[in-house]
Specification:
65 strands; 9-stranded mixed beta sheet; 8-stranded antiparallel beta sheet; single chain; alpha+beta
Length: about 1500
Amino acid sequence: MADSTGSSPQPVPQRNSSLPQDPDALAKLQEPLITVTEELSPEEKARRARDNVQSTGLSEALEKNRAKHRKGALATDLETSDANEVKQALANASAKPVARPPSPPADEKKPPGAFGKGKPAQAGWTAQSKLPNPGDEKAMDELNKVFNTDALVEMYKGSRNSTGAEALSNDLLAQYMKESYYGEWYHNSGVLLFSVVFTWAITKLGGGLMACLVIGAFLATYYQTSVRRLRRNIRDDMQRELMVSKLETDIESADWINHFVTRFWLIYEPVLSAQIIGIADAILIENTPSFLDSIRLTTFTLGTKPFRINGIKTYPKTEQNVVCMDWDVSFIPNDLLDLTQRELQSKVNPKIVLTIRVGKGFVGAGIPVLLEDLAFSGTMRLKFRLFNDFPHVKTVEASFLEKPQFDYSLKPVGGETFGFDINNIPGLQTFVQEQVHATLGPMMYAPNVYTVDVAGMMAGTTDLTSANGVLVITVYSATNLKTADVFGSLDPYITFHIGNMHNAEMARTSAFEDTTNPKWDETHFVLLNNLNDSIYLQVMDRNSGRKDTSVGVASFDLKEVAENNNVVQGLSLSVMRAGKPVGEVKCDMQYFPVSKPEKQEDGTIIPAAESNSGVLRFTVHECKGLGGDAKRSSGIGLPIIGGKDDISAYAVVKVNGQDRLKTKPFKRNANPRWDKFVEVFVADKTKLDLGVNILDSKEFSDDEVIARWRMSLVDMEEQHVKKGMDWWNLKDGPGKIHLSAMWKPIAMTGFAEGLGHGQYRPAIGVARLHFFGARELKNVEAITGGKSDPYVRVLSGMQIRGQCERLNDNLDPDWEDAIFYVPIHSVREDLIFEVMDYNDIQKDKSLGLYDFTMKDIVKESTAENGQVYYEPLESLDKWVDLVSTERKKGKGKLHFAASFIPIMELPKATEKKPEQQKPVTAEPPATPPQEAQAAPEIPPEKDLHGELIKYTGDDKSKIDLISYESGVLSVNIHAVKLRERQKAFASILLDSVDAQYNTVPIKGIDMPFNETGDAFVKEMDFSKLIVRVQEEKDSDKDDAYIGYYTSSVRDIVRKIMERGDNDEDDEGETFKLLECEGGTIRLSFKFTPVVNFKLDPRESLENQGNLTVTALKASNLTAADRSGTSDPYVVFSLGGEKVHKTEVVKKTLNPVFQGEQFTAPVMNRTSIKLKAEVFDWDQIGKDTSLGECEIPFSGEQLESFGARDFEVPLNKGGSLRVRMLWQPQLLARKRTGTSLFGSTTKIFTSAPGAAFGVGKDVVGAGFGAGTKVIGTGGKVIGGGVSAIGSGIRGIGRLGGGGSKREKSSDSSESSSINQQQPVPVPTASTTSTVDQRGSMDSSMSPQQRSGDVSGTVNVTLLGARNLSAKDKSGTSDPYARVRVGGRVVFKTKTVKKSLQPEWNESFTTKISDGKSLLDIKVKDKNTLNDVDIGDCTLDVADLLQSGQTFDGWLALEPSGNGEVHVRVEVSSENGSTSRGLFGKIM
């Protein structure tokens, strides 16, 4: 425990401490440890009463089983794992003053160690001899009264050799002058010169012979001393050199240390034997097989003759900090040659007896196993590596230079008298020796060494069972869990394991019933020795009446925690089963190490930080006298039932009333020894109560509590430190208990800040991913004779963040414009690039994947103020090998490029240290506290990346978010309310036809999702957000929806700026769900700009949309006929495919075209070309080309939403004049069976009023040869920017004449833009061919278009053309079937062996409830199984509104499988009201 100076963790009671001998202390222990006073609350009194009630082991086990999944396995003193309650408990503990243990009195001494009463095991040589232990001072005093010293020395073997002592030097000069003042040459020279000069001076002054003799005597004495010193130095140098040579070649004896060991062994061997017995018994009771009653080490002694060091060889030529020696060691106690007759009489041989008891209860017997006549000899090399800090020996490396020799006598039956040595069995001894050598060889036979980390042992770091810190795991939720159990529901919970899945469970969460998306919000504490292992989160399914089953495992390398300043937040761990993801777990991790003293560079030591929170290591060592002092015996050596020797005791440790440790029963002994410990994280030591129940294990009845111990940790500290107690009297029974504890304080600084982030973490940037193509992909359709239809998708955990279009029948695909922008929330948010094979009916199959590490493109940096931000590394462009879902070698390669775009990081204000509080006066302050604020800080001009920050005004009070073109939009989906109970989920779509985030599905009317997703805004001017609510279905290809919300991003950001940035507790705004009567959705938003980013024009949303072309006239064409004229018509091609053909104008060189207009979807106008070719029509023969031209329509030539005329010269003379209009909008991919997208493309966009003169409905404009659009001219009227999102047609609301927008929070308010009053449109028969891509209309609300439309349509299937051949004969037997709302309403006849069938069959069907999509599929008739040729869809909702007739060719999907000719005539049931194209005409 930490002392008052905050030193390193120290043990509270030492293990071998004695029982307290102080009578006052013993009397104090007899008092009840827990008293109930009147001041206690009723709850506290009830709790203490429950603690004092005796309970059996069975009842406790039942209670533990009931609570197993109610609270989970708590490794703390807290009774809850709720994240908020844990946070509050630790905050309260931190606010308290630290409870320091009292300092021990200076004059108080700790009593020596002693064993309790009772018959001990026969430990040591003293149990086999009549001689007392030489360490027993009282016994030795008694012997000294009888024997003299010489007799005692002879009695205990040998006498001490007298080494003598050198005589002191009688040199007079050496006694008065230091050695450093004489002996050097300059000293001698000075003395001689001084003597000569002094003699001359005395002679000059009249001195006589006596004076000269005195000087000569002085000089002679000095010379004698100097020469003696010289000789001694020479002798020492010679001796040192000889010793060095002797060390290298000779082996020196170690008689001095052998003599020391001989004397010390007699004192220490009994203590060593007792320790070995205690440790061995504690291990044996834990590993006793169930078919045995007990295994006890009843006798252990190594004898009176110790081991001997025969010789030591030292190697002086080693590193300065290394000492290397070879020790020749032997332990041969049966060697009697060096013993005298008296020594032989008192000699005790080594003896080890292991008693194995069989049977149950009192019906049993012990079988002794005897091991004696031990002998051992060997040569061991020891290498000591030294260092500066205590204990100055860092490591010791030990190895045997040769195989050691050993011998023994083992008698498993018969005991000492009739025992048979099993080594007499031929071959057994050799076999045993070989097994020992095979085990020790790889461990410590040279050149292998066994390393002992001495410094680590002293510091406590080598004890892998000891906790050096606590890992705090906050588990928020799991999503999309998939159980492997086909029976019953999924009741998930999580268990935590360190190092290996099969290691012991460290903690567990509570279990949720019947859900695949549990939300825990629980905090758990896992004790760790180090951060070098991995942690495993095993998701389990709780079962009743059978074993719980595993759902999957999520793992995380704890080294990443250490690399990130012990904090990792926003983790999304994939749950894997058999190499496949089966869910995702969201959690945070934070590591807090044990506080330890720190040594500064100047040598000063900073004490360990004190804290009320920490790790308690509580150890139950042993008990004494559990059966009392009564002595009863049966007379035949058997234990009396119920007597003190019949006790099989075990201990149960309780922490705050919860069981934390249960030892094994120590059979039939009133003095059991367990030496078991438990470690627990303590949130507040001042509230910690400890308890130990001692129970007697019964064979045929419930276990009985025979004694108790209770005490608070604070009281235990006080009694140990002040009174030196580590033995305590037991309550409710006789006996004493030996306990110890070690307190390791942990400073939980930053814990509160680390919690509460929830499931969403703000983005740190955006990853730009460009997928070029793949090669040599796996063909999963080879059995059916086809090829894979690959597409690539990006996954973050279980969320699909983007996917490209598929390419049919292609094993080497090159995807066009497969570019994704994925928000990244952590450098550990690794992505998965997975190539999939598309299937219409079945689930898509994986063709291979690649795990992309985010650290390859982003690095973490730290600003001067310590703030962390993220910077991009160099972009990647590489080919990678694909692996299977099991992460094994796969087939194929993937080519991609990746880069990182950081978000704006505002510098945080530097926190000022609070000033010292001044004394409070009675006078009230002049300024209220709310107004007494510091001067406002100057807003930063640049962010941490060096990007200029745009503000709204000169005061720089608010960032002008709307001025940023790109950024990350986060959408918090709080709740959805529907009229009917459904199981649904919400999706976020931003500038994408695929969902970029899906919530977990919830069943009910009020659905509190409370989830946050985000997406990247490429261009604010064109970006639109859609939040779609869908019913959960098994098929992931069904885009049917319940309702949706939509708005332009610009309007959302404008509202964010109006609201301000105080949205920490934003409850959101409620919006109406479109196409869902009575449905609402509550949302909140946040927008963060990105920096250092400029969008490539080729990726601009403005370059995707619909191109409307009107052929006006041609001039000065070349004459192709003999009459000097031509019969011209024009064929338009887009991207190499013919899209439109005009009518022929007879006999003219300057034709004027009437109503020749078409609209075609364009994926990217920067990479596609529009060509026009003028032909002369010939009645006989091939038409003649009169010239061709390329018509530019890029952003430089043609602005969006603005019609422009182009006069383009033809390459053979003449010119062509056309009028073009470009309308940007997102083009949706068609999916079979969807109610969102049709294969028709209807264009209702915002165009200038004079775009084309009069309005016109262009139905099904698309690709196809020979396509004609016939009808009157028209005027395209719409609502501005086209819808961008999931393919929902008609996003936004077009205001009709006199219509008003409501001032509610309806999403139409934010999505209506620039609307114009519609004009009447005449009914026209229109013929067209439609591509597989549909476009999304932004000018009309889906509610206006199809929400309340009903009527009857007459559909005629005229025929088909250019169908693909499915039979071996090169033909097909086609027929068509039509489905409405999932129900087949018509099927045509089969036309045999034809690729151009004509059916001319009609049927009538009713359209209601918004089911306005005609799903037409053409199939090839076969005897066993019909084969799909292609399919298309046609939405008749607008036809019902306008009353128009459709007559056109629809392209079958997949592309290239032909076209089908359809005519649709409408007779509205609401005939009295005509809605026209855009709604009701006012």
